[in-house]
UniProtKB/TrEMBL annotation:
Alphabetized SMART domains for the sequence: Elp3 (SM00729)
Record note on quaternary structure: Interacts with PqqD. The interaction is necessary for activity of PqqE.
Name assigned to this protein: PqqA peptide cyclase
Sites where the protein binds [4Fe-4S] cluster: C21, C25, C28
Length: 374
């Protein structure tokens, strides 16, 4: 039986303003072939996106990138989003957040900033981002506090920093963060290219959970700590994006409207650009947004699974990357016929010598090199 729920509006719009970024993170979630999508839509196009999204019913708007501060119209876009009544959120590395821009963003009505760190040590932070940015991030953290924004710190966790989790939590508490997201890398895009270096071992994940729980007890309500474990260590898949085309919509820098950051890689799907159709038409009527809604597209074992409307078959992008079929069960699921690919990656975690597979840092040159290989 088709369990397709009625389609409601998107609640959350993510405006990926640019793929340009001063950092070169080895786990960047921008598409590996970002260099081929280097066009950026204009300020007027973004203003129309914000207006159409709000008319559609969206209530939250995130501005991300790349580094969104590289767009000098960011303040204009935030002001319009605020005027329209969105709750606004800036996701930034901190590079470019001077006190002048912080004042302008405050005046524009920005509600919330999420600042990323790569680690609690300068060495690993700077190594992983391939930049010297650790002290700058500390300064930006203080600037966020001084402007009265709630401080949300985000640290992507993986094998190279997971054993520092104790010091990462301590650093976040010292900097006065209200929220700390310890988000284990999910293996897409650049993190998938570097998975052999980044996937932690099961013991490391367990230790990280123990350390985090001890800190939660100590901190009480002073700081909330979220720890997301890698889905490779789960036996059931995550409800990716809270369901395909269910609550989330992202607009890529060139105006392509997508149900998730990486959906553009899925074969046989077209995603319209803003300007070709309205956001309302794209959300409700486009083939790209409708293809994996509900359950009518499912194959075995999802089709008859009791949990199909709990996780909606997991992640379409992961199914494509690991099973070669975007309509397959997410291989993270223990019921997937190819679950062994996930088990094999887990069994190898921690054993790959860096000389075999050098770590690939995100850059336009590497993007062009990798897109020739795939
Ligand atoms: Fe694309 Fe999960 S990341 S559906």
């Amino acid at each position: 039986m088709d369990m397709t729920p009625p389609v409601g509006p998107p609640l959350w719009i993510l405006a990926e303003l640019t793929y340009r970024c001063p950092l070169h993170c080895a786990f960047c979630y921008n598409p590996v072939d970002f260099a081929r999508h280097d066009q950026e839509i204009s300020t007027d196009d973004w203003l129309r996106v914000l207006q159409q999204g709000r008319a559609l019913g969206a209530v939250q708007c995130g501005f991300s990138g790349g580094e969104p501060l590289l767009r000098d119209d960011l303040e204009v876009l935030v002001a319009e989003a605020h005027r329209l009544g969105y709750y606004t959120n800036l996701l930034t590395s901190g590079v470019g957040l001077t006190s002048r821009r912080a004042d302008a963003l405050k005046a524009a009505g920005l509600d919330h900033i999420q600042l990323s760190f790569q680690d609690s040590t300068r060495e690993i932070n700077d190594f992983l981002s391939h930049t010297r940015t650790f002290e700058l991030k500390e300064r930006v953290a203080r600037l966020i506090k001084d402007n009265g924004w709630p401080m949300v710190m985000n640290v992507v966790i993986h094998r190279l920093n997971i054993d520092h989790i104790d010091r990462i939590i301590e650093m976040a508490a010292d900097l006065g963060a209200e929220y700390l997201e310890l988000a284990n890398a999910q293996y897409y895009a650049w993190a998938q290219v570097n998975r052999a270096h980044l996937l932690p071992t099961r013991e490391q994940v367990q230790r990280a959970e123990d350390v985090t729980n001890a800190w939660r007890q100590r901190l009480g309500d002073k700081m909330r700590v979220f720890l997301v474990v890698p889905d490779y260590y789960e036996s059931r898949p995550k409800k990716c994006m809270n369901g395909w085309g269910n609550v989330f919509l992202t607009v890529a820098p060139d105006g392509t409207v997508l149900p998730c950051h990486t959906a553009r890689m899925l074969p046989g799907l077209e995603f319209p650009k803003v300007g070709e159709m309205t956001l309302r038409e794209i959300w409700f009527e486009s083939e790209g947004f409708n293809r994996y809604r509900g359950s009518s597209w499912m194959k075995d074992p999802c089709r008859d699974c009791d949990e199909r409307e709990k996780d909606w078959g997991g992640c379409r992008c992961q199914a494509y990357m690991l099973a070669g079929d975007p309509a397959a069960a997410d291989p993270v699921c223990a019921k997937s016929p190819v679950h062994q690919v996930v088990e094999a990656a887990v069994a190898k975690a921690g054993s790959v010598a860096s000389s075999e597979h050098p770590l690939v840092f995100r850059s336009a040159d590497q993007s062009r090199r990798l897109q020739r290989m795939f």
